Protein backbone atom coordinates (compact mmCIF):
# COMPACT_ATOMS: atom_id res chain seq x y z
CA UNK A 1 0.00 0.00 0.00
CA UNK A 2 1.32 3.48 -0.86
CA UNK A 3 2.48 5.61 2.05
CA UNK A 4 0.25 8.68 1.81
CA UNK A 5 2.58 10.80 3.94
CA UNK A 6 5.55 10.05 1.70
CA UNK A 7 3.67 11.08 -1.45
CA UNK A 8 2.03 14.16 0.03
CA UNK A 9 3.45 17.34 -1.54
CA UNK A 10 5.43 19.60 0.78
CA UNK A 11 3.43 22.62 1.88
CA UNK A 12 4.91 25.96 0.81
CA UNK A 13 5.82 28.47 3.49
CA UNK A 14 7.04 31.37 1.33
CA UNK A 15 4.59 34.15 0.49
CA UNK A 16 5.73 35.71 -2.81
CA UNK A 17 4.45 39.15 -1.80
CA UNK A 18 6.44 39.03 1.45
CA UNK A 19 9.57 37.95 -0.43
CA UNK A 20 9.10 40.84 -2.86
CA UNK A 21 8.58 43.33 -0.01
CA UNK A 22 11.80 42.39 1.79
CA UNK A 23 13.76 41.85 -1.42
CA UNK A 24 13.04 45.46 -2.36
CA UNK A 25 14.86 46.51 0.82
CA UNK A 26 17.98 44.43 0.10
CA UNK A 27 20.30 47.30 -0.78
CA UNK A 28 19.48 48.99 2.53
CA UNK A 29 19.92 46.05 4.95
CA UNK A 30 23.41 46.98 6.13
CA UNK A 31 22.72 50.72 6.54
CA UNK A 32 22.20 51.29 10.30
CA UNK A 33 20.31 54.49 9.50
CA UNK A 34 18.24 53.15 6.58
CA UNK A 35 15.03 51.15 6.35
CA UNK A 36 16.53 48.36 8.48
CA UNK A 37 17.63 50.68 11.30
CA UNK A 38 15.28 48.96 13.75
CA UNK A 39 16.88 45.59 13.00
CA UNK A 40 20.31 47.03 13.76
CA UNK A 41 19.02 48.14 17.16
CA UNK A 42 17.30 44.80 17.74
CA UNK A 43 20.22 42.60 16.69
CA UNK A 44 22.41 43.09 19.80
CA UNK A 45 19.46 42.18 22.07
CA UNK A 46 18.77 39.00 20.10
CA UNK A 47 22.47 38.12 20.01
CA UNK A 48 22.73 38.50 23.77
CA UNK A 49 19.89 36.02 24.26
CA UNK A 50 21.32 33.63 21.66
CA UNK A 51 24.78 33.71 23.21
CA UNK A 52 23.40 33.02 26.69
CA UNK A 53 21.26 30.18 25.31
CA UNK A 54 24.27 28.66 23.50
CA UNK A 55 26.38 28.75 26.66
CA UNK A 56 23.69 27.12 28.78
CA UNK A 57 22.54 24.55 26.24
CA UNK A 58 25.95 23.37 25.05
CA UNK A 59 27.80 23.99 28.32
CA UNK A 60 30.16 26.55 26.78
CA UNK A 61 32.51 28.85 28.65
CA UNK A 62 30.78 32.28 28.74
CA UNK A 63 34.18 33.88 28.10
CA UNK A 64 34.96 31.76 25.03
CA UNK A 65 35.32 33.81 21.85
CA UNK A 66 34.20 30.98 19.53
CA UNK A 67 31.63 28.88 21.41
CA UNK A 68 30.17 27.58 18.15
CA UNK A 69 33.46 26.22 16.80
CA UNK A 70 32.85 22.82 15.25
CA UNK A 71 29.08 23.36 15.13
CA UNK A 72 26.69 24.07 12.25
CA UNK A 73 24.25 26.97 12.40
CA UNK A 74 21.29 27.82 10.18
CA UNK A 75 19.58 31.24 10.02
CA UNK A 76 16.16 31.01 8.39
CA UNK A 77 14.89 34.22 6.83
CA UNK A 78 18.44 35.54 7.01
CA UNK A 79 17.88 38.74 5.04
CA UNK A 80 21.26 40.20 4.11
CA UNK A 81 23.10 38.33 6.87
CA UNK A 82 22.82 40.55 9.97
CA UNK A 83 22.71 37.47 12.20
CA UNK A 84 24.70 35.05 10.02
CA UNK A 85 27.88 37.10 10.23
CA UNK A 86 28.00 37.28 14.06
CA UNK A 87 27.27 33.53 14.21
CA UNK A 88 30.20 32.92 11.86
CA UNK A 89 32.44 35.04 14.10
CA UNK A 90 31.33 32.87 17.03
CA UNK A 91 32.93 29.97 15.16
CA UNK A 92 29.95 28.32 13.48
CA UNK A 93 29.80 26.87 9.99
CA UNK A 94 26.86 29.03 8.91
CA UNK A 95 24.13 28.55 6.34
CA UNK A 96 21.59 31.30 5.65
CA UNK A 97 18.37 30.79 3.71
CA UNK A 98 15.98 33.50 2.55
CA UNK A 99 12.91 33.78 0.35
CA UNK A 100 14.24 36.78 -1.59
CA UNK A 101 16.96 36.36 -4.22
CA UNK A 102 17.94 40.02 -3.76
CA UNK A 103 18.65 39.46 -0.06
CA UNK A 104 20.81 36.43 -0.78
CA UNK A 105 22.86 38.42 -3.28
CA UNK A 106 23.34 41.28 -0.80
CA UNK A 107 24.30 38.81 1.95
CA UNK A 108 26.85 37.06 -0.26
CA UNK A 109 28.45 40.34 -1.30
CA UNK A 110 28.72 41.60 2.28
CA UNK A 111 30.14 38.33 3.61
CA UNK A 112 32.72 38.22 0.84
CA UNK A 113 33.77 41.82 1.59
CA UNK A 114 34.03 40.87 5.28
CA UNK A 115 36.16 37.80 4.58
CA UNK A 116 33.52 35.39 5.93
CA UNK A 117 32.67 32.04 4.37
CA UNK A 118 28.89 31.70 4.70
CA UNK A 119 26.69 29.42 2.60
CA UNK A 120 23.71 31.50 1.45
CA UNK A 121 20.74 29.93 -0.32
CA UNK A 122 17.42 31.15 -1.71
CA UNK A 123 14.24 29.12 -1.32
CA UNK A 124 12.17 26.99 1.05
CA UNK A 125 13.84 25.70 4.20
CA UNK A 126 12.20 22.31 3.66
CA UNK A 127 13.91 21.91 0.28
CA UNK A 128 17.47 22.49 1.45
CA UNK A 129 18.48 18.84 1.54
CA UNK A 130 20.63 17.38 4.35
CA UNK A 131 20.16 19.22 7.63
CA UNK A 132 21.47 18.31 11.09
CA UNK A 133 22.15 21.85 12.33
CA UNK A 134 23.26 22.29 15.94
CA UNK A 135 21.73 25.78 16.07
CA UNK A 136 18.72 26.95 14.07
CA UNK A 137 17.53 30.57 14.28
CA UNK A 138 14.36 32.15 12.90
CA UNK A 139 14.23 35.80 13.90
CA UNK A 140 11.03 37.72 13.08
CA UNK A 141 10.10 35.19 10.39
CA UNK A 142 7.18 33.02 11.50
CA UNK A 143 4.76 35.96 11.30
CA UNK A 144 5.54 36.28 7.58
CA UNK A 145 5.11 32.67 6.42
CA UNK A 146 2.16 31.16 4.56
CA UNK A 147 1.81 28.05 6.73
CA UNK A 148 3.06 28.28 10.32
CA UNK A 149 2.64 24.55 10.99
CA UNK A 150 4.65 23.58 7.93
CA UNK A 151 7.29 26.16 8.81
CA UNK A 152 7.73 24.84 12.36
CA UNK A 153 7.88 21.27 11.04
CA UNK A 154 10.64 22.34 8.64
CA UNK A 155 12.57 23.99 11.49
CA UNK A 156 12.26 20.78 13.50
CA UNK A 157 13.47 18.79 10.52
CA UNK A 158 16.57 20.97 10.19
CA UNK A 159 17.56 20.55 13.85
CA UNK A 160 20.16 17.96 14.83
CA UNK A 161 19.56 15.68 17.82
CA UNK A 162 20.53 17.67 20.90
CA UNK A 163 20.36 20.90 18.93
CA UNK A 164 18.98 24.32 19.89
CA UNK A 165 16.32 26.35 18.07
CA UNK A 166 15.86 30.06 18.81
CA UNK A 167 12.86 32.02 17.56
CA UNK A 168 11.72 35.59 18.01
CA UNK A 169 8.45 37.11 16.87
CA UNK A 170 5.95 39.87 17.71
CA UNK A 171 3.15 38.95 20.10
CA UNK A 172 -0.46 39.50 19.00
CA UNK A 173 -1.64 42.01 21.58
CA UNK A 174 -3.44 45.33 21.53
CA UNK A 175 -0.16 47.05 22.42
CA UNK A 176 1.76 45.42 19.56
CA UNK A 177 -0.95 46.49 17.12
CA UNK A 178 -0.73 50.08 18.32
CA UNK A 179 3.06 50.36 18.56
CA UNK A 180 4.59 47.85 16.11
CA UNK A 181 2.09 48.26 13.28
CA UNK A 182 0.23 51.53 13.46
CA UNK A 183 2.77 53.82 15.15
CA UNK A 184 6.03 52.29 13.86
CA UNK A 185 4.92 52.21 10.23
CA UNK A 186 3.21 55.60 10.27
CA UNK A 187 6.27 57.20 11.88
CA UNK A 188 8.62 55.52 9.40
CA UNK A 189 10.42 53.40 12.02
CA UNK A 190 9.81 50.33 9.83
CA UNK A 191 8.80 50.27 6.14
CA UNK A 192 5.07 50.35 5.46
CA UNK A 193 3.57 46.94 4.83
CA UNK A 194 6.16 45.12 6.94
CA UNK A 195 3.69 43.78 9.51
CA UNK A 196 0.22 42.25 9.40
CA UNK A 197 -1.03 42.17 12.98
CA UNK A 198 -3.38 39.22 12.44
CA UNK A 199 -0.34 37.09 11.49
CA UNK A 200 1.37 37.71 14.85
CA UNK A 201 1.47 34.64 17.08
CA UNK A 202 1.03 34.45 20.84
CA UNK A 203 3.41 32.43 23.05
CA UNK A 204 0.67 29.89 23.78
CA UNK A 205 -0.02 29.42 20.07
CA UNK A 206 3.68 29.02 19.35
CA UNK A 207 3.99 26.51 22.19
CA UNK A 208 1.20 24.42 20.64
CA UNK A 209 2.82 24.50 17.19
CA UNK A 210 6.20 23.50 18.57
CA UNK A 211 4.72 20.68 20.65
CA UNK A 212 3.02 19.37 17.51
CA UNK A 213 6.45 19.12 15.88
CA UNK A 214 7.96 17.29 18.86
CA UNK A 215 9.69 20.37 20.25
CA UNK A 216 9.69 21.88 23.74
CA UNK A 217 9.54 25.63 24.22
CA UNK A 218 11.56 27.19 27.02
CA UNK A 219 10.59 30.28 28.97
CA UNK A 220 10.17 33.22 26.57
CA UNK A 221 11.75 36.59 27.26
CA UNK A 222 10.18 39.78 26.11
CA UNK A 223 11.96 42.33 23.96
CA UNK A 224 10.73 45.65 25.29
CA UNK A 225 11.57 49.32 24.82
CA UNK A 226 12.00 52.16 27.28
CA UNK A 227 13.44 55.67 26.93
CA UNK A 228 16.26 54.85 29.37
CA UNK A 229 17.19 51.33 28.21
CA UNK A 230 16.10 51.36 24.56
CA UNK A 231 15.42 47.83 23.35
CA UNK A 232 16.19 45.26 26.04
CA UNK A 233 15.27 41.82 27.36
CA UNK A 234 12.35 41.94 29.75
CA UNK A 235 9.64 39.87 31.44
CA UNK A 236 7.11 41.92 29.46
CA UNK A 237 6.04 39.85 26.43
CA UNK A 238 3.46 42.31 25.11
CA UNK A 239 5.42 43.58 22.09
CA UNK A 240 7.94 40.96 21.03
CA UNK A 241 9.47 37.84 22.55
CA UNK A 242 12.37 35.47 21.98
CA UNK A 243 12.62 31.86 23.12
CA UNK A 244 14.91 28.83 23.08
CA UNK A 245 13.48 25.50 21.91
CA UNK A 246 14.70 21.92 22.23
CA UNK A 247 13.58 18.54 20.97
CA UNK A 248 11.49 16.30 23.25
Brief overview, please?
With 248 residues, this protein is α/β, with parallel strands linked by helices. The chain has a single domain, classed as Rossmann fold (3-Layer(aba) Sandwich), CATH 3.40.50.150. It has eight helices and nine strands.
CATH superfamily: Vaccinia Virus protein VP39
Helical content (DSSP H or I, runs of 4+):
25-40%
Question: What does the oligomeric state look like here?
Answer: single chain
First-residue to last-residue Cα separation: 31 Å
Please, what is the average pLDDT?
Answer: 92
The count of domains is 1
**Tally of contiguous helical segments:** 8
CATH architecture: 3-Layer(aba) Sandwich
Give the C-alpha Rg.
17 Å
Given as residue ranges, the uncertain stretches (5+ residues, pLDDT < 50) are 1-8
Q: What is the global morphology? A: globular
The CATH class assignment is Alpha Beta
Pairing-aware structural class of the strands and helices?
Answer: alpha/beta
Order of helices and strands: HHHEHEHEEHEHHEEEE
The amount of beta strand, in percent, is: 15-25%
The CATH topology is given as: Rossmann fold
**Quantity of strands, as a count:** 9
Q: Main beta sheet, described?
A: 9 strands, mixed
Q: Any chance you could write out the topology, listing elements then pairs?
A:
Layout: H1 4-7, H2 16-23, H3 37-58, E1 72-76, H4 84-89, E2 93-98, H5 101-113, E3 119-122, E4 133-139, H6 148-158, E5 159-170, H7 174-186, H8 203-212, E6 215-217, E7 221-226, E8 230-234, E9 240-247
Parallel strand pairs: 1-2, 1-4, 2-3, 4-5
Antiparallel strand pairs: 5-9, 6-9, 7-8, 7-9
Amino acid sequence: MTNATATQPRRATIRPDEAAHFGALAADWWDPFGSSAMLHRLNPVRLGFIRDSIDRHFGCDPDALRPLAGRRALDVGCGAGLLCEPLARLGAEVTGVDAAEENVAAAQAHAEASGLAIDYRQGEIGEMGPSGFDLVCAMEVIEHVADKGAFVAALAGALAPGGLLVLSTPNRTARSKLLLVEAAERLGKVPRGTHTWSDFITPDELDDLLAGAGLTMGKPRGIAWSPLKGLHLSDDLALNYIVGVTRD
